Amino acid sequence: MSTPPADEAAAFEEESSALPRLSARGWVLVSLGLAALIGITAWVAVQMQSQPVRWKDVGFTVTSPTEVTATYEVYLYTDAGATCTVRALNDRFTEVGVAAVHVDRADGAEQRLTTPVVTTEEATTATVQGCVADG
Fold first, then answer.
1. From CA 58, how far away is CA 55, in angstroms rounded?
2. DSSP 8-state symbol, 122
3. Pairing relationship of beta strands 82-89 and 95-103 according to DSSP bridges
4. Which residues contact 98 (CB under 8 A, 6 or more apart)?
5. Transmembrane residues, as ranges (predicted)?
6. Within 10 Å of residue 12's Cβ, how many Cβ atoms?
7. Each residue's pLDDT tens digit, 48-82
8. Which candidate, 117, 25, 129, places its Cα nearest to that of 66?
């Protein structure tokens, strides 16, 4: 066997590189893509921070075939209260009960609430559908 000449081996290594080198145009496109991704992430973060009210489901309990209780936390970021809608779903994800609850800001900026929901048939879950700031 013979060994290939040094020039031929060097040319082969350059061609078979696992990571191709980017041209100047490629670097510009990658940089613009990363800048756009960072900008979109920052915009989403600012939008989430500017919400006047947020909520988080904690759990639920089926107390009877006609009632379920939902436990959730509400975070108020303004001086206004909020109205939260809690809904109960059955095993086919059909809404079988709904309750609207007023959350008063005077009770604190962070509150854990437990709300009973009367249902038309046995529910298998209860969640907060949403909260809207008053005013």
1. 10
2. -
3. antiparallel
4. 85, 86, 87, 88, 117, 129
5. 26-46
6. 10
7. 777 889 999 999 999 999 999 999 999 999 899 99
8. 117
| CB-based contact 51:96 (threshold 8 Å) | no
121 with 68: CB under 8 angstroms?
Answer: no
The pLDDT value recorded for residue 47 is 81
Rounded CA Rg of the chain: 29
Residues of the chain with pLDDT under 50: none
What is the number of residues in the chain?
Answer: 135
Residue 18, phi then psi, degrees to nearest 5: -70, -35
DSSP letter (8 states) at residue 92: T
Structure tokens, 18: 């696992």
Domain ranges of the chain: 19-50, 53-133
Q: What angle do CA 61, 62, 66 make, to 5 degrees?
A: 140
Residues with Cβ within 8 Å of 37's Cβ and at least 6 positions away in sequence, in order, are none
